[in-house]
Amino acid sequence: MARPVGARLGGAFFIEHSPVCAKKCFDNCNRVLIRITARSDPGPLASRSPFLQVDRPLASTSDPQTRADKLAVRKSAEQDVLMREVDEAVRRDQLEGAARQYGLIVGGALLALLLALGAWLFWRDRQEAERETRSEQLVTAFDELESGALPQADEQLAPLATGKDDAAAIAASLARAGIALRDNRRPEAMQIFQAVADNEAAPQPFRDLAAVRLSAAQFEDVEPTVIIERLRPLAVPGNPWFGSAGELVAMAYLKQGRADLAGPLLAAIAQDENVPQTLRSRTRQLAGLLGVDAVGDVDETLAAMRTGGGSAAAPQ
Fold it and tell me: CB under 8 Å to 19, separation ≥6 — which residues?
């Protein structure tokens, strides 16, 4: 049996039995030394040694730099969440403060606005219903007037003609003035016509109609200058009242002895196609009597005379 020999080489013990055993023991001790060295200080030796076993922890789980980055990201996310919560809390406090400070004022203003809107809607509905009622009453009165029941029509028109300046009131007033003229109550009729003509709140067509009717009613009672000044703005071609107003102005000119002004005006009325045919025929005759040619087209004039049943005489 081999004699054991104890020897110390590089911190490891070898037991010498035979050269083969010594070789094996030396290799084993070398592996142990390399493992210890690689674990404590991995370096060139570890990379060169064929006996190094890779049993170290992975760098991704134990790298201090990677852990620090993760901690920094987590800390930044926590700070962002905290800042958002703080901002939300500040905004909530601001809204609550504004609601406490201005809530009553804003609520009162909204309530007042709603009440005003409701009152306006109620007033508008009342006005609309009243206009409809007045229109129906006016139509009924006109039906009575058309049937010849003048007293009944005047009685129904009286409440409509007072208290308001709307179209229904003006129309009722003019109708009452016409009834007064038919009943030979000229002063009352002229007073109503004058009131409507001077009413600036009345629609302009009604005012013009009242002016024409007033001038016709008082033509013999006032100076021609009054008629001319009142109706001159209406006695122009293109105006809806050109025919009626122009004829009265022409008669006022004749009353003044101004045939040189009356003749051309009558001829212009006779040649205006927008004027009623009966009025054109009458003014054509008057213009012919004054020596003014009012016939624009003889064939057209003859055709109009035949259409009118021959009632219009040929111009002189």
Answer: none
